[in-house]
Amino acid sequence: KSCQKPVDKYIEYDPVIILINAVLCKAQAYRHILFNTKINIHGKLCVFCLLCEAYLRWLQLQDSSQNTDPDDLIRYAKEWDFYRMFGIASLEQTSFFIGIFLTLWWMTPEMLKTKSDFILLLKALLLSTYGKLLLIPAVIWEHDYTPLCLAFIKVFVLISNSQAIRVTLDLNRILPWFAIFFGLILENGVVCLFQKLGWDV
Fold it and tell me: What residue ranges are annotated as transmembrane (predicted)?
């Protein structure tokens, strides 16, 4: 009923074509993936994306590439830095999602009435963060344009999040961006809090 078509055309499509259309952020491809497939990799995908983000942050620490002597005791501290970056990335993503949920619950309480509505939206948001996997080639093929690539990856993930919210709750284009904006405000608030505590974020 949400796509207002007699049948989902992607039922007959090859998975590669569906994936390409999802990368192009087509709403109908998102509907097919969320409602007509039995994908159950949300948690694994989330952890893997967080590991990629933590690794990128860990590499960007100023002292992570210095003093590579294997007998150096500081290497253990560097390993703990990676776990700390993973924890910070997890808290930031959690605060981003909380900002989205609070905004949508405040603006459209009728859309998020039951626990299953929240779970479906959470699954959609977790799946739509797949763009963070592009951090891997951005790190491997390190070059002068890496900050620009990271900015493009962030924008792509936000566009994917917007489409996931729009398709899941059957909303217009403006409200998902409004929710994402408040999610980013809450996420940046967490970043500022960590910086005030003196942590490298």
Answer: 85-106, 118-141, 148-168, 174-194
My answer on whether 55 and 115 are in the same domain is yes
With tokens 């992607």, the residue in question is 10
For residue 95, give the nearest of 25, 196, 194, 197 by alpha carbon. 194
Task: Give dist(CA 201, CA 192) in Å, integer.
Answer: 9
pTM above 0.85, yes or no: no
SS3 sequence of 51-75: HHHHHHHHHHCCCCCCCCCCCCCHH
For the stretch 49-104, pLDDT in tens is 898 888 888 877 754 455 555 555 555 556 788 888 899 899 999 999 999 999 99
Q: Which range of residues forms the domain containing residue 29?
A: 1-39
